[in-house]
Amino acid sequence: MLAVDPSAANAAKLLQPLQIGSVSIPNRLILAPMAGVTDQPFRLLCRQLGAGLTISEMVSSNPALRNTRKSRERTNHQGEPGPIAVQIAGSDPQQMAEAARHNADRGAELIDINLGCPAKKVCKAAAGSALLRDESLVGRILEAAVRSVDVPVTLKTRTGWSPETRNLANIARIAEASGIQLLTVHGRTRACGYQGEAEVESLAGIREQCALPLVANGDIDSATKAIEVLNRTGADAIMLGRAAMGRPWIFGSMATTLRGLATTHPASGQCPAMISEVPRLPSMAWIGAILMEHLDRLYRFYGERRGVLIARKHIGWTLRGLGGGSGSSTDGEHLRQRLMATTTAASQLDLLRKHFADRISPEALARSADSTDGFSDFASLAPDMHWNGHQRVNR
Length: 395
What we know:
44% of the residues lie in helices and 12% in strands. It is of the alpha/beta class and 395 residues long. It has a nine-stranded parallel β-sheet. A two-stranded antiparallel sheet has the order 1-2. A two-stranded antiparallel sheet has the order 12-13.
């Protein structure tokens, strides 16, 4: 009998569908909900580039905030492929139940409960990770939310309020008893913020006691790290947060690496589900095309004025991931200053188009022009994208 390589088996596992109650997702690479990051344009792009599930930015359960522009934008899922997942936050069981029902009535197919946000503003309202100090209230919130809807309810949490008061095992028991269908754990306490390394021991400990699908979150930024975490924790899936900022293609890139490992080990499990091929190491031309497409979606979603402002942080994350723009530090700072000063979509696109074109060899540009992959085709996408103040015009 051919021996099974645990790493190859876990590579194959991450590319398999995952059942969450009545809902199935196509693979186990999940985008974390992040306020100010995972808006509709970013979620759409991540899904298109390989994420198996994306979750909305956190939405307050306070009914007084339900019709604010921020809440409306955060719950806008027009054009998104299912399943639609909405994360809600709050500390009142009745309001959380009403928020779950409100979003389910408007198309949410998964409701995620936020028990992990470490932000002071959220914790000051006794929501997010502040709830970890009141296990009884956690139980009432989860039970109320689960009873209020017919769609699966999931939970995202941390390992405790502080290293001295870790209570993940108790929270996992409460979640399972309440009818939660999936548990995501960021491997840090609230007090740790994002400092230090994410824990794996706590996740491994609850894997032995908890039958819920378990998602590992924290410090996962590559296929190698994802496999290591699964090997050490027995988790069923992984969630990427900060690693996806400026790199929406990370899901597909990881999948390409995982597929290569899984398919070279026949005993590793079932054939992995197919995900649109994304380069393991994307070229500058390819990244430029992705960024241009992202900006176009931001302009469409928010309008030109707000879209340009919101695009700045995404541009910054992308260029930072490329080492400041793959030029000298002086060039990078000059570009940053010009991008911060621009106020129109046309000028923003022109600056970036020139920046990427100056760093792409004629040979690479010719190769991208011959590509049949729209996202790889920087030569046809970026130079021909013109913003007239109201809509994109491809000439």
